[in-house]
């Protein structure tokens, strides 16, 4: 009798293992249209976060190019809120391929899957290929809902890929993901107290409303984008956090309206706020700051010829290869036009969340492209220094340059060997897009927990 029960249990476990294996096999991408031959596997598809309401998040997963079994798992999130990690992160920044004319994909020499297994998530519901069968799910979405959905996604994704369940997990991203990431990380740590599931080893990104937003005036002024007079009123009469707060409450005061008109006129619509050194002709994949850059004065951006990523991801053969489908929309978009996000969540304090994560022993990296005026390095540096003081962390690496590719890659400072700040020299808001080699050097050092290079 006991032998029969053991056999039955063994058979059940084998059946379950086969079923789980089939999940990931079904999501395996045989080859994307126009894709060059590669040695690594990649997968994409859906993970349900709410079966009852038929809410599913779309993911794209790229195994590490070399020895994936020994490499960590990295979750990448883009911001907005409402912009795609597939189109921006994977196909424009640090993924293995980029669309390039004539319907082909070219290899990204500095893809982050050289160092890690990369998981790109289109979140929240309503972004990219992620969908709900009920359009009401796109209304009133906020940071809390997003964090919970992302946790459920990871939990269920591990059912498809159980071999990654105990793998070292890092969460990285940019822009409004500076809200998504720390709030998700804290939720994972809370969940682990009930059931040890997430082997979180580090996070990179933070967005803090007042400090980050109000560093914009100084950045504009120091780069010659606004006059002394405008700098004065932009810091005293109406700073940027006040403007955003009033704008999203539909209560814009006359003084803030006047100040922002001055700022807009002087900075000019012909300067890219994501990279003040670039000419204005940019790809729309750079536009992921719905909350961070609300426009009182209408600005039109001259998008160069066509957006190859948008065109590529809207091809039927590409969608079929990705196991993707459009639900409730006619086209895949870089940033969602159906998501109604609670924009005032931008005011939620995140620095305290990051502080609690550090107290749990989780390393945190805050990095900035030094040409980005949307989330300027000056604000990020102040945030990290203030947090280090509050946590009583001493400086373990004094402020210094770091190197990449025989050049200065940026500057860095480390506190308590657990809280790090780094700039990426010459980088924009989307650092891996504008400085891919330097961004990869920074990423590799973060994963390995070692100092950034001090010499060539």
TrEMBL record:
Keywords: Carboxypeptidase, Glycoprotein, Hydrolase, Protease, Secreted, Signal. SUPFAM superfamilies: alpha/beta-Hydrolases. It is found in: Secreted. Its EC number is 3.4.16.-. Pfam families: Peptidase_S10. It comes from the Eukaryota. InterPro entries: AB_hydrolase_fold, Peptidase_S10, Ser_caboxypep_his_AS, Ser_caboxypep_ser_AS. Residues 1-19 form the signal peptide. Gene3D superfamilies: 3.40.50.11320, 6.10.250.940, alpha/beta hydrolase. Belongs to the peptidase S10 family. This is Carboxypeptidase.
């Amino acid at each position: 009798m006991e032998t029969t029960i053991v056999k039955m249990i063994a058979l059940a476990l084998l059946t379950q293992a086969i079923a789980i294996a089939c999940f990931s096999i079904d999501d395996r991408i045989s080859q994307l249209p126009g894709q060059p031959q590669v040695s690594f596997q990649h997968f994409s598809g859906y993970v349900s976060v709410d079966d009852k309401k038929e809410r599913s998040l779309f993911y794209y997963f790229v195994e590490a190019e070399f020895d994936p079994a020994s490499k960590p798992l990295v979750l990448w999130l883009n911001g907005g809120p409402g912009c795609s990690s597939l189109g921006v992160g994977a196909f424009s920044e640090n993924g293995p391929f980029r669309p390039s004319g004539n319907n082909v994909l070219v290899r990204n020499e500095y893809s982050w899957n050289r160092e890690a297994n990369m998981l790109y998530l289109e979140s929240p519901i309503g972004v990219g290929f992620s969908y709900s069968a009920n359009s009401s799910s796109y209304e009133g979405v906020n940071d809390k809902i997003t964090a919970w959905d992302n946790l459920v996604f990871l939990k269920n994704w591990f059912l498809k890929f159980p071999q990654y369940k105990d793998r070292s997990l890092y969460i990285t991203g940019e822009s409004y993901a500076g809200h998504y990431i720390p709030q998700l990380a804290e939720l994972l740590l809370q969940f682990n107290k009930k059931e040890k599931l997430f082997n979180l080893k580090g996070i990179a990104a933070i967005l803090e409303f007042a400090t980050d937003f109000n560093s914009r005036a100084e950045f504009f002024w120091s780069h010659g984008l606004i006059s002394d007079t405008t700098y004065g009123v932009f810091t005293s009469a109406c700073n940027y956090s006040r403007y955003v707060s009033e704008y999203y409450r539909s209560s814009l005061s006359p003084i803030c309206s006047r100040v922002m008109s001055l700022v807009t006129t002087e900075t000019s619509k012909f300067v890219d706020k994501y990279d003040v050194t670039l000419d204005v002709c940019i790809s729309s994949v750079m536009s992921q700051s719905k909350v961070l850059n609300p426009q009182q004065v209408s600005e039109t951006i001259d998008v160069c010829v066509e957006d190859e990523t948008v065109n590529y991801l809207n091809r039927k053969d590409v969608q079929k290869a990705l196991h993707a489908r459009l639900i409730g929309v006619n086209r895949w978009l870089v940033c969602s036009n159906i998501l109604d996000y609670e924009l005032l969540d931008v005011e939620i304090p995140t620095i305290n969340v990051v502080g609690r994560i550090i107290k749990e022993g989780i390393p945190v990296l805050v990095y900035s492209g030094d040409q980005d005026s949307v989330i300027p390095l000056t604000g990020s540096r102040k945030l990290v220094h203030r947090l280090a003081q509050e946590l009583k962390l001493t400086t373990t690496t004094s402020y210094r340059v770091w190197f990449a590719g025989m050049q200065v890659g940026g500057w860095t400072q480390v506190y308590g060997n657990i809280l790090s700040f780094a700039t990426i020299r010459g980088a924009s808001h989307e650092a891996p897009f504008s400085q891919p080699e330097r961004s990869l050097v920074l990423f590799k050092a973060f994963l390995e927990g070692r100092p950034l290079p001090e010499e060539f």
